Amino acid sequence: MIWRLVLIVVAVSHSVPPAYAPNIGKLDKALSTTRDLDARFVQTRRSPLLDGEERSSGTLQVQKPGLARLEYKDPSPLVVWKRGDSAWVYTPALKQVVVSPTGASGVPVGWVLGASRADLRRDAYVHETGSGVDIVPHADAGLPWKKVSVSFGKDGFPNRYEFTESSGESVVIELKSVRRNKGIPAERFRPRFPAGTRVVDAG
Q1: Which end of the chain has the lower number of beta carbons within 10 A, N or C?
Q2: What separation in angstroms does the CA of 75 have from each of 2, 4, 46?
Q3: Angle at 21 between CA 20 and CA 27, to 5 degrees
């Protein structure tokens, strides 16, 4: 489901010396210098069960520590809020909100950029590649991906994320028009939905 495709905790691996790992250095710099982020995104999902690709788009907002908001606008409206260890997924068409632990809901990109270095080291390894970095979650991290491949833009900021699941399904999220450290109103990260919306606790 689309809402499963939004935020992962990553770790900076000590297995490769920084001098020989320029892409890990770029990721580390992005994590340490990003206080908040506002961007558009395009998401492409590929699955053995799909005939072709499934594309969607919307906006992503991240604020440290631990806040993110992902709003899908096309083809179907949907909003995901991440606050600490919890996630709210609001589907207007169903008039329903599902509340669950963040790891269980599978929320990815905002989690990458919104985590602290300590959080990152705890849950995954990062390996240098020729074009970016591959992030491999620890077996006990409780995350649904076997690998996340991160690529960088000309400015050195991570702007493309490919999540691969054991099932063979993959999701590519590309960030566009990225604005960093400009400040985002706190209310953007407060889950809000119309009165009468059904709330389902999946925790």
Answers
A1: N
A2: 11, 16, 16
A3: 160
Cα 144 from Cα 164, distance rounded (Å):
9
Predicted confidence (pLDDT) per residue in 113-141, tens digit: 766 666 666 778 888 998 899 888 888 87
Structure tokens that stand for 161 in this block: 């994320």
The DSSP string of 40-96 is EEEEEEE-TTSSSEEEEEEEEEEETTTEEEEEEEESS-EEEEEETTEEEEEEGGGTE
At 137, which helix (H) or strand (E)?
A: strand 132-137
Task: Say if residue 20 is exposed, middle or buried (CB neighbours under 10 Å; 0-12, 13-18, 19+).
Answer: exposed
* Six-digit token string for 189: 């990260």
Per the confidence metrics, is the pTM higher than 0.90? no
pLDDT tens readout for residues 7-60 = 433 323 333 444 568 998 898 888 889 999 999 999 998 888 878 889 999 999
Tell me if residue 107 falls in helix, strand or coil.
Answer: coil
